[in-house]
Fold these 2 entries.
Entry 1:
Amino acid sequence: MDTLSIQILSLYRSPFLSSPDFVEDLKQFLHGCRDSYDISVLVGDININSLDSENHIVNEYLNALYEEGYISTINTYTRKQGDTVSCLDHISVNNHNPVILGITFPEGNRKSDVRGKVQYKSQIDYTQLAERLEGENWGHIYDVGSAKDCAQAFVDTLKHHIKSYTKTSKILRKHCKRKIWRTNGLLK
C-alpha cells in the first residue's frame, strides 16, 4: 500500500503583526515547503478577512496561497458581530480532492457466541454525505454564543450527517483478520 505524507500547518497571525510582512513571510515559507509533502493543510486564525475582496492585502494573501497550489475550503463567514461578518479563520489544502475523515469509536464489546468476537465494518457514502453537507444551512452554528459552543454545534451536526450516511455491516468470519500465529495449517 502506498503511503501519503501529510503536513498540517497551524498558523496564528496576531492582529498587531503587519499583514504585508506576514504575507511575504508566508509566501517564502510555503515556497520552501513545496513538494515536500503529498498533502498539505494550512489552518489557523490569520486575522485577514478573506471576504473583503476589495482589500489589496487580502488579494495578496489569497494569491500567495493559489500560487503554491492551495485552495481555500472556507469561503463564508466564520465570525459574526451584529450585522458585520468576516472570515478570519482559514483552512486551505493543496490536495484538491479532500476527504472527510471518519473515526469509529467502539461502543462496548460486541461479542458473538463462545467462538469469538464479531467484527464489523462501516462504510460512509461520501458522495451522498458531501451533497448533504453542501446543502446544509450552517447559519445556526454562527448564532451560538461562544467559540466552544459553536465548535460543538458544528461537530454535532457533522456527526449526525456522517451517521446518517454510514452503513455498518458484519464481516463474514472467513474475511475476518486472524492473529498472526493462527496459520491456515492450524485452522484445518
Entry 2:
Amino acid sequence: MLSAAPAASNATPVEPDLNSARLDGARVSQKRHTDLLAQLLQASDPTLVARQNVEGLNEEFFMTAGTYLSLAQKEGNTEASSRLGRALTAAWDVKQSTLRPELQLLNRLVRTQAEAARREIYISGGAELVATLTMNDRWFAATLGRMVADVERQPPNPGKASLLSTLRAIQRETEALAAQAARQAARGQQP
C-alpha cells in the first residue's frame, strides 16, 4: 500500500512581526524590573533582597527604577521619593560591590560632581587609588575614554553637557595623578 505524499502548501509562512516581538520583550523586561523594585520597596532589609537578586540589578533595572523615582519627585511625593531612593541606594551599593575596582572608582567619581569632593577621594585613596588607575594596562583610562566618546555621540539631552563636563574633568584629574605617580616612580619615590 502506497501512501500519498502530503500536499505541498502554497501558504507563505507567517513571519512574526518584529516590532511586536520587541515590544513584548520590553514589556516583560520592564515588568521583571518593576517586580524587583517592588520587592525592594516592601522588604524590611532591601540590601538582603538586592543581594539575593544581584543578577537582576542591571542597567535596565536602574533606568526603570530611576524613572519611577523621577516621577515621584516631579509629583512632589516625598514619601515615595524617599522610599525609592533608599531602595535604589541599597540596590546600587550591592551592585557596586560586585564590580571590578576600576569601575567602582569610576562610578564613585562620576557620582561626585564637585571637584573639591573628588579631590578628597583622590587624597584619601592614596597609593591604592593610583594603583587602581594604572592596573590592567590602564583599563580605567580606556573605559573612561569610551564613556566620554559614548556620551559625545548621544543626541542632545538635559544631562549631557553636565555629564560630559564631569567625565572630562575626571579624565584630566586622573591622568594628572597617573602622570605624577609615574614621575615619582621614575625618581624612586612612593606616590
